[in-house]
Write the structure tokens for this entry.
Amino acid sequence: MKNQEIPYKTYLTEQELPTAWYNLRADMKTKPAPLLNPGTGKPLTAQELTPIFCEELVRQELDNDTAFFPIPDEIRDFYKMYRPSPLVRAYCLEKVLDTPAKIYYKFEGNNTSGSHKLNSAIAQAYYAKQQGLKGVTTETGAGQWGTALSMACAYLGLDLKVFMVKVSYEQKPFRREVMRTYGASVTPSPSMETEVGRRILEEFPGTTGSLGCAISEAVEAAVKNPGYRYVLGSVLNQVLLHQSVIGLEAKAAFEKIGVKPDVIIGCAGGGSNLGGLIAPFMGEKLRGEEDYRFIAVEPASCPSFTRGVFAYDFCDTGMICPLAKMYTLGSSFIPSANHAGGLRFHGMSTILSQLYHDGLMEARAVEQTSVFQAAEQFARCEGILPAPESSHAIRAAIDEALRCRETGEEKTILFGLTGTGYFDLTAYQQFNDGLMTDTVPTDEDLARSIVALPKVPEE
Ligand SMILES: *Cc1c(COP(=O)(O)O)cnc(C)c1O
């Protein structure tokens, strides 16, 4: 297909919607390290995980070998309400940047929750329902995961209890109300409702909370309430598995128009959208069939890949969760409250951590004012108000395209536009008023939380 014949938007049909999720681990030569029991230092068994997580999700979590997991019809039917999502050629952005690069983005903001998180929320809620559970508990940071899960739970008739990071609970009352409209109960975290919440409040009075802390509370609430399990919106292998629907669709859409991307870029909080977007492309790279560049983009205020260490750490502040081997800033790291939006998690997916460690992926950190400059530039020409998280990927995509302008390279760039920013207008207001600042942790800040990493027996 000639360049000018490529449409602005490429959609797959409903029939072309993927019928199976792709498990990237099946093609990894070095598998991600297993989750460890913090008490014994031994790999966690399915038996130890099922009091916390749903059974089928545990099976998916621990399976490093099965390449494809069929998507149940009920989940595919739900997907059809908002998928396949479009692959968009950013002609207008290319023109503004005056670049020979070709820029594409996969847009995941076309649903009420406003992000890709619904792809895993419906899957996790479905398996909880299948198991006959009453409900699930979870944490939410900026609120997208809680919103997505509340939609999925409402659809399936499951009860949902959300622990919402306090700073977001206060700054994002509208998100909270969407969740409540869908029937979820929402508690600001840290709270007095759990033991771990009370402990954290005592130690850090006035804390604005963190994802790690909200996770501890949600896990405790699940374990203590019969008929409940805990679900998590990022980081875990199962979440990357569900999010592979993004990459599978993107790849099929590219094949439809006869284009192959050279560079694939995504923002990285816990790694689920990036892991899902790159999955089938990385699979080709791992099997030696194709080559691509992959770039993870993280905030300079919470730089797990670029300034963290690759080590076993807790996924939560309360240190009750399993240990995961990942790039981490230490579970006691609490990013500056000044940082807008999500991507505030101290750790990173074990799958992406291993790929990065093995040199199969690059990472870069960007500062928030430059992220909002990119968001503004994108919004003004492409007509979508991007989420601050997604705008990290936009920043890197623009930078790559500008580099192409200098070198004259006609690279094809794909980035994940994970969501919309309608609930992030407080951050946009700060930016528009010129009040946004960049907070970057000092080496001493990081050393303090990294030195507190748990001791794990050598493998
Ligand atoms: C949650 C979220 C992210 C970051 O999470 P990942 O698991 O790293 O994908 C990015 N963008 C949006 C819009 C989100 O809601």
